[in-house]
């Protein structure tokens, strides 16, 4: 370990770090044109490099973001991305050194949490991250079903040019992001980056409510069909709506598209009522339910204080945090606040399991059944179930 040095990179080193990341994902280095777009997402002081014998061998970066928590508040979040170690230098502790430096840096900046999207599920738990939201991939055979007449709707859907609509999408996104826990920041650099990834293959629509407010959008891409005719598949990359009626109108548009067979929606919220909207619910197939957002509580006390809790309940919870040991200890959590607690703990769990509870994705009883909780007082489990319940299914649905 002593031969590793981790430091913040200077802007002249950002492209090398990005190419190292692309290489680790088995992708070619960025072109000059692509780099111009990508560079805007590199924030000075937040791009780290790990050096071995003076050579850049690993990198991790973050952007100053935010996370919507139960109760609708948004809190500061380090949005972590670009994590990679050169293939000839893996399993020597470089990532561990980068993660340590990154989490301490975020704590110094007063960010109570860090979030990321993981390439592999085996990497981040050891650093205290847990799966805080999940999402599903759905596939609908539109030739065999349609939206029921009883599904909500009533708005207008119009096509827009995606490359010219980032500001409009952004306004709509901000209107929707406090509706449920788990949403993160999409800043101007994020929207530009998304345009760059999709290029001119992307198409988009905006939905306007009866009162004239734009309250939903979808970005989609026609893919190739089976090669035998004109029929194509439709990939829905992003669909955000401020109400069920807005979401239903957007899906009605997508499922009504001529010359289309399968319509696939990626990273959709688990409670989106597609099956209820369709005349044949079996034509909506869940292809995958997977982890969506990984969350790390960096300052456990501050993070717990930031979300809301239902009235009349409290639990004494012991948290174990081997990577950031200051967090370890007992917390009494209830509607009146969160305090360090010197009395006995009722339940004990590792910080990565607390991340799964924090936005309401998992219940304490489920984690206890999974063996992730030490139970000193069984009666505290149903209380904790109600205390952490968020009222809505959390969802992120944003790649960063
Ligand atoms: C948010 C994002 O950017 S997600 C992108 C993540 N990056 C990638 O997937 C790119 C390809 N992979 C890589 O670049 C590297 O393998 C990394 C960054 C995932 C890991 O870097 P390393 O320097 O090898 O990690 P490090 O040596 O610190 O490993 C720490 C521990 O995690 C384990 N570990 C790390 N990565 C993996 C993995 N992919 N699979 C299994 N175990 C792993 C190590 O075995 C080690 O375990 P130990 O402490 O019991 O010995």
From TrEMBL:
Transmembrane segments: none annotated. This is GNAT family N-acetyltransferase. One of its GO terms (biological process) is aminoglycoside antibiotic catabolic process. The keyword Transferase applies. Keywords: Acyltransferase, Transferase. Belongs to the acetyltransferase Eis family. GO terms for molecular function: aminoglycoside N-acetyltransferase activity. InterPro entries: Acetyltransf_17, Acetyltransferase_Eis, Acyl_CoA_acyltransferase, Eis_dom, GNAT_dom, NAcTrfase_Eis, SCP2_sterol-bd_dom_sf. It comes from Saccharopolyspora montiporae. The active site is at 124 (proton donor), 400 (proton acceptor). Signal peptide: none annotated. Residues 4-152 form the N-acetyltransferase domain.
């Amino acid at each position: 370990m002593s031969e590793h040095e981790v430091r913040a990179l200077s802007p002249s080193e950002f492209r090398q770090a990005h190419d190292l990341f692309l290489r680790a994902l088995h992708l070619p280095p960025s072109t000059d044109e692509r780099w111009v777009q990508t560079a805007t997402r590199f924030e000075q002081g937040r791009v780290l490099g790990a050096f071995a014998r003076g050579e850049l061998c690993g990198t991790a970066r973050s952007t100053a973001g935010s996370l919507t928590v139960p109760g609708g508040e948004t809190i500061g979040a380090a949005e972590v991305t670009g994590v990679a170690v050169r293939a000839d230098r893996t399993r020597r502790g470089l990532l561990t050194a980068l993660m340590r430096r990154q989490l301490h840096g975020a704590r110094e900046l007063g960010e109570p949490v860090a979030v990321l999207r993981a390439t592999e599920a085996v990497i981040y738990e050891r650093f205290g991250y847990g799966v805080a939201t999940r999402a599903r991939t759905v596939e609908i055979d539109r030739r065999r079903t349609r939206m029921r007449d009883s599904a909500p709707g009533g708005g207008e859907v119009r096509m827009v040019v995606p490359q010219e609509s980032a500001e409009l999408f952004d306004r709509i996104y901000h209107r929707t992001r406090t509706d449920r826990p788990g949403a993160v920041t999409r800043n101007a650099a994020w929207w530009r980056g998304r345009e760059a990834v999709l290029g001119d293959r992307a198409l988009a629509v905006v939905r306007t409510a009866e009162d004239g407010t734009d309250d939903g959008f979808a970005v989609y891409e026609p893919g190739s069909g089976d090669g035998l005719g004109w029929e194509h598949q439709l990939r829905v990359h992003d669909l955000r709506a401020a109400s069920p009626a807005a979401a239903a109108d957007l899906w009605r548009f997508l499922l009504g598209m001529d010359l289309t067979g399968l319509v696939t929606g990626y990273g959709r919220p688990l409670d989106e009522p597609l099956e209820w909207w369709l005349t044949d619910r079996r034509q909506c197939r869940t292809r995958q339910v997977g982890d969506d957002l990984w969350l790390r509580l960096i300052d456990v006390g501050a993070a717990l204080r930031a979300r809301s809790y239902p009235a009349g309940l409290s639990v004494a919870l012991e948290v174990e945090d081997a990577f950031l040991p200051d967090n370890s200890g007992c917390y009494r959590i209830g509607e009146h606040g969160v305090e360090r607690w010197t009395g006995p703990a009722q339940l004990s769990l590792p910080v990565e399991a607390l991340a799964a509870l924090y936005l309401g994705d998992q219940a304490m009883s489920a984690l206890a059944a999974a063996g992730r909780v030490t139970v000193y007082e069984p009666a505290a489990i149903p209380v904790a179930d109600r205390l952490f319940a968020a009222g809505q299914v959390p969802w992120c649905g944003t790649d960063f």
